[in-house]
UniProtKB/TrEMBL annotation:
<dbReference type="GO" id="GO:0007346">
    <property type="term" value="P:regulation of mitotic cell cycle"/>
</dbReference>
<keyword id="KW-0498">Mitosis</keyword>
<keyword id="KW-0132">Cell division</keyword>
<keyword id="KW-0539">Nucleus</keyword>
<dbReference type="GO" id="GO:0005680">
    <property type="term" value="C:anaphase-promoting complex"/>
</dbReference>
<comment type="function">
    <text>Component of the anaphase promoting complex/cyclosome (APC/C), a cell cycle-regulated E3 ubiquitin ligase that controls progression through mitosis and the G1 phase of the cell cycle. The APC/C complex acts by mediating ubiquitination and subsequent degradation of target proteins: it mainly mediates the formation of 'Lys-11'-linked polyubiquitin chains and, to a lower extent, the formation of 'Lys-48'- and 'Lys-63'-linked polyubiquitin chains. The APC/C complex catalyzes assembly of branched 'Lys-11'-/'Lys-48'-linked branched ubiquitin chains on target proteins.</text>
</comment>
<dbReference type="GO" id="GO:0070979">
    <property type="term" value="P:protein K11-linked ubiquitination"/>
</dbReference>
<keyword id="KW-0833">Ubl conjugation pathway</keyword>
<keyword id="KW-0131">Cell cycle</keyword>
<dbReference type="GO" id="GO:0070936">
    <property type="term" value="P:protein K48-linked ubiquitination"/>
</dbReference>
<dbReference type="GO" id="GO:0031145">
    <property type="term" value="P:anaphase-promoting complex-dependent catabolic process"/>
</dbReference>
<feature type="compositionally biased region" description="Polar residues">
    <location>
        <begin position="73"/>
        <end position="85"/>
    </location>
</feature>
<keyword id="KW-0175">Coiled coil</keyword>
<feature type="region of interest" description="Disordered">
    <location>
        <begin position="30"/>
        <end position="85"/>
    </location>
</feature>
<comment type="pathway">
    <text>Protein modification; protein ubiquitination.</text>
</comment>
<dbReference type="InterPro" id="IPR018860">
    <property type="entry name" value="APC_suCDC26"/>
</dbReference>
<comment type="similarity">
    <text>Belongs to the CDC26 family.</text>
</comment>
Amino acid sequence: MLRRKPTRLELKLDDIEEFENIRKDLETRKKQKEDVDVVGGNDGEGAIGLGSDPKSREQMINDRIGYKPQPKPNNRSSQFGNFEF
């Protein structure tokens, strides 16, 4: 393997301006989202499921990711197959 000197990265004025623009855009989006949550919280339509019981929150997450849990049977034949004791 050949060794070489580390590559030098230079920060340009355009890069700084782009970073500042993106940061300002993200801050405005965050403020808008917080404003919507605050206004929606007063109306009762803010963040759905935050104040509800854990089962409904878990159900909402399962629906979102497409997970449908199947109930497990409690008899021994389902746990160990068709073995005879």
